[in-house]
């Protein structure tokens, strides 16, 4: 009965229901109005994401398409060639083209779907080096996986695709860097988000959803608010719902 | 593709995706394995919950039933007659009978569904009086809405129904009171849960899910983990999924 909002992306989406996560905050904001489903895949780039499209968003009528989908890839695509995450690298042009394919598929799935692109977040290189050393030893020091500059190139590419296709995009790479101390404030390991970083993503997604048409305050409750229920005659509040043969047998 | 876990209950379920909430924690724990859907209705008692059953859990084959459902009512049913929440009161025998009806409906919906009953939490009466005074003025002081003793009577009734029907129950009323200072540690307004209170519910639900068969570590990922994907030949990892005519056109 409720519409679905799908969050499609990499680990930053997969982790979005952890404490303070932006996915959980969205689910809370749209509580009783929409279901928020996490479709985040740790380590995935846009090339691998394409393999999931027909499974997650089937084109047949077997399942209702989401009313809104966020597409939040790029952090892995932007991994450096030669770095310890090079297996995840996707060239910029292919990244942009993959985003176009994902959007085209979603539009085919539902022409009315609200589609929002989110750029990769900025990178705290200092912390990435610490993380690499702790995880992979001294060897990894020479093989920095990501730079902030390169993440910015992919963020720019993502925003360009949004403009080209006429769909909203959130430049989280730029947005986060507007705040002093963003490196430690918003990023836990130089890449993934702290609770404060999650709050930034959450605020931006809700802002864009509202600017489009997905305004939580304006969406109907799935069932009557308790204040509308007459304790002595509860049937009345639920009368409009009575359309099931077995309903009156309860 | 993923199974659904449904959380059916009152405001304590509706709020469960707020920061530190037990619903969000469950969604995080079952990430990439099951979708956790909140079906919490602020102020609802079991009498009003019955009106939702056929909508939330239809008996026709139009939607796949959840693999697991938590039933977390009683906090409103146990509201005192004569208190400022008496509109929500449901007598104990009817509460127990309504729980039986809900369970019977879910079993009809799916005989294999894992059904878990959760009792109402304990009540911090001191805080409830403060809350009543702040919200309703001095008048409300004479009209305490809930007592811990009465919540305990409903908790006992809930556990009895679980035993009678052979389904697991979580006595959160007892469990929370095992810890010194439970009043302020676990309850924010004498009734609803703090982050620590949410953590207790989360731990108990996961424990019971695991003791049954819904063990997150043993459930398969919906798609390959990134470490299983060969960067040079990603098709291979996704080969078992190729069953869609359009799949190779991407």
Describe the structure in your own words.
Two copies of one chain form a homodimer. Chain A has helices at about 10-15, 20-30, 45-50, 55, 90-110, 125-135, 150-165, 170-175, 180-185, 195-210, 235-240; strands at about 5-10, 35-40, 70, 115-120, 170. The first copy, chain A, has about 250 residues and is an alpha/beta fold. Chain A has a single domain (about 5-225), classed as Rossmann fold, CATH 3.40.50.1110. The first copy, chain A, has a five-stranded parallel beta sheet, sandwiched between helices. The radius of gyration of chain A is 21 Å and the shape is globular. The model of chain A is unreliable at about 245-250 (pLDDT under 50). At the A-B interface, helix 2, strand 2, helix 4 and helix 11 of A face helix 2, strand 2, helix 4 and helix 11 of B.
Question: Could you give the count of β-strands of chain A?
Answer: 5
Strand arrangement, major sheet of chain A: 2-1-3-4-5
Oligomer: homodimer
Instruction: Assign the structural class of chain A, choosing from mainly alpha, mainly beta, alpha/beta, alpha+beta, or little secondary structure.
Output: alpha/beta
CATH topology of chain A: Rossmann fold
Structural domain tally of chain A: 1
Identify the biggest protein-protein contact and residues per side: A-B, 51 and 52 residues
What is the residue-averaged pLDDT of chain A? 92
Main pleated sheet of chain A? 5 strands, parallel
What is the element string of chain A, with H for helices and E for strands? EHHEHHEHEHHEHHHH
Q: Could you give me the name of the CATH homologous superfamily of chain A?
A: SGNH hydrolase
- Assign a percent range to the helix content of chain A: 40-55%
CATH class of chain A: Alpha Beta
Based on the coordinates given, report the CATH architecture of chain A: 3-Layer(aba) Sandwich
Strand content of chain A: 5-15%
Radius of gyration of chain A (CA) equals 21 Å
Q: Uncertain segments of chain A of ≥5 residues (pLDDT<50)? A: 243-250
Counting DSSP H or I runs of 4 or more residues, the number of helices of chain A is 11
Family (chains A, B): Belongs to the 'GDSL' lipolytic enzyme family.
InterPro entries (chains A, B): GDSL (IPR001087), Iah1-like (IPR045136), SGNH_hydro_sf (IPR036514)
């Amino acid at each position: 009965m409720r519409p679905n909002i799908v969050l499609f992306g990499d680990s930053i989406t997969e982790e979005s229901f952890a404490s303070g996560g932006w996915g959980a905050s969205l689910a809370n904001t749209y509580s009783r109005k929409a279901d928020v489903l996490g479709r985040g895949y740790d380590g995935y780039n846009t090339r691998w994401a394409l393999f999931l499209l027909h499974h997650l968003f089937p084109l047949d009528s077997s399942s209702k398409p989401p009313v809104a989908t966020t597409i939040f890839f790029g952090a892995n695509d932007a991994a450096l060639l030669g770095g310890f995450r090079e297996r995840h690298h996707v060239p910029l042009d292919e990244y942009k083209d993959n985003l176009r394919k994902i959007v085209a598929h979603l539009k085919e799935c539902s022409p009315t779907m609200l589609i929002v692109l989110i750029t990769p977040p900025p990178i705290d290189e200092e912390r990435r080096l610490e993380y690499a050393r702790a995880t992979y030893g001294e060897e990894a020091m020479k093989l920095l996986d990501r730079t902030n500059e390169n993440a910015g190139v992919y963020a720019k590419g993502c925003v360009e695709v949004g403009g080209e296709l006429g769909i909203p995009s959130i430049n989280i790479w730029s947005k986060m860097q507007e705040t002093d101390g963003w490196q430690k404030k918003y990023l836990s390991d130089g890449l993934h988000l702290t609770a404060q970083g999650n709050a930034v993503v959450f605020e931006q997604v809700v802002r864009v959803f509202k600017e489009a048409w997905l305004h939580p305050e304006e969406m109907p409750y799935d069932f009557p608010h308790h204040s509308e229920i007459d304790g002595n005659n509860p049937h009345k509040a639920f009368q409009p719902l009575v359309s099931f043969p077995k309903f009156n047998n309860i």
